Every structure is written in C-alpha cells, then in structure tokens.
Amino acid sequence: MLALIVAVDDNFLIGNGNELPWYEPNDLKYFKQITLNKAVLMGYNTYLSIIKRLGRPLPRRINYVLTYEKKLPAGGIIVDNLDSLIASYQDSELFVIGGKSVYESLLPRVERLYLTRIKGIHEGNIYFPRINFNEFILLSTKTNDNLTFEVYERIKK
Length: 157
Ligand SMILES: NC(=O)c1ccc[n+]([C@@H]2O[C@H](COP(=O)([O-])OP(=O)(O)OC[C@H]3O[C@@H](n4cnc5c(N)ncnc54)[C@H](OP(=O)(O)O)[C@@H]3O)[C@@H](O)[C@H]2O)c1
Fold this sequence. Notes:
By secondary structure, the chain is of the alpha/beta class. It has a single domain (2-154), classed as Dihydrofolate Reductase, subunit A (3-Layer(aba) Sandwich). Helix content is 22%, strand content 33%. The chain has helices spanning 25-35, 44-54, 82-87, 100-106, and strands spanning 2-9, 13-15, 39-43, 62-66, 77-78, 94-96, 112-118, 126-127, 136-144, 147-154. It has an eight-stranded mixed beta sheet with strand order 5-4-3-6-1-7-10-9. A hairpin with a 2-residue loop joins strand 9 (136-144) and strand 10. The chain is globular. Bound molecules: NADP nicotinamide-adenine-dinucleotide phosphate. NADP nicotinamide-adenine-dinucleotide phosphate binds next to strand 1, strand 2, strand 3, helix 2 and helix 4.
C-alpha cells in the first residue's frame, strides 16, 4: 500500500530551500517510529539532503530513490519501474517521504496519509500540494504540544 508521511505548518509549508523550515525533534521521533523497518520512497533532492545530514541513507529502512541520474551516493536504490515497485507493496506500506515533486506526483495514488500539523506560520518557500480531504477519512489524531499527528485513509470508490 502506498502511504505518505509529511509535516506541514498552518499554511501547508513543507520546506525552506532544500531544508525543513523547523527543527521539531518530536516530529523526527514520530517519523522514525512510523517508518522504521519499512520501505521509504523519495526524490533525488530529499535523498541528497539525508546523505548530507546523516552521511548515509535512513538506517534500518529500504531507501528507494526516484531520479534520472545513473548513480547515487551511498546505498540508496534507484527505482527503475515505479508501477511495479508500488504493486509489490500490496500487503505492506511503502512510504512516500518527499520532497515536493514526489508528493505532487504520487499524492493521487496514496491510500494512507500520515499528516503532522506543526502549529504556526514558518519561513519558507515550498508547499505541499492541495489535498482534497473529502477523499479521505480521519482514522486517528493525537496532539502533543504544538504538534498534531493525524492519520487518514483514502475512501474506497
Ligand atoms: N515537511 C516535510 O515533511 C518534508 C519532507 C521531505 C522533503 N521536504 C522538503 O521538500 C523540498 C524538496 O522537494 P523537491 O521537489 O526539491 O525534491 P525531491 O522531490 O526530493 O526531488 C526532486 C527530484 O527527484 C527526481 N524525481 C522526482 N520525480 C521523479 C520521477 N517520477 N522519476 C524520476 N525522477 C524523479 C528528479 O531528480 P533528477 O532530475 O536529478 O533525476 C527531481 O528533480 C525541501 O524543501 C525539503 O525540505 C519536506
């Protein structure tokens, strides 16, 4: 199943240049808890920013990368057939983890959405695409200080 995880502020801001607009350790912990031992799928820029930050791909996760480059630094797996990759995750979650261009192209195919809302308006220039919340039902919501963790599932047609 294709899942998506993202953190947004009140304006659905997600990025500032190639960085996150905030430092929210509790969101990073949540991201780790949800994605650990799973497969994650990301764009080239997001992969490079992880390598820059950690010096390696996300540990204890399969790191799939969408890119037209022929080679990747350090251990990520280049996706050569996106449709068959998604089809191979029918019984477990494959997490779309960004960035903007990958969120935009895959949001219509996402069946589960892990949305962290970070209270306030932050500085930045990259926004999440518009979500039609009528297509989803809210499965759970949990608030911890300025963060609200929501999980949605796409309504089956
Ligand atoms: N708030 C959050 O939760 C969150 C999470 C992640 C990222 N972000 C933010 O998102 C921003 C980065 O977004 P971005 O759009 O620049 O980067 P991105 O989506 O990580 O990477 C874009 C690149 O991925 C490759 N790509 C994308 N779709 C592809 C496809 N279908 N097939 C093949 N290659 C594909 C292309 O690279 P090539 O042309 O090199 O092949 C494209 O230039 C940053 O500001 C970051 O902080 C926020």
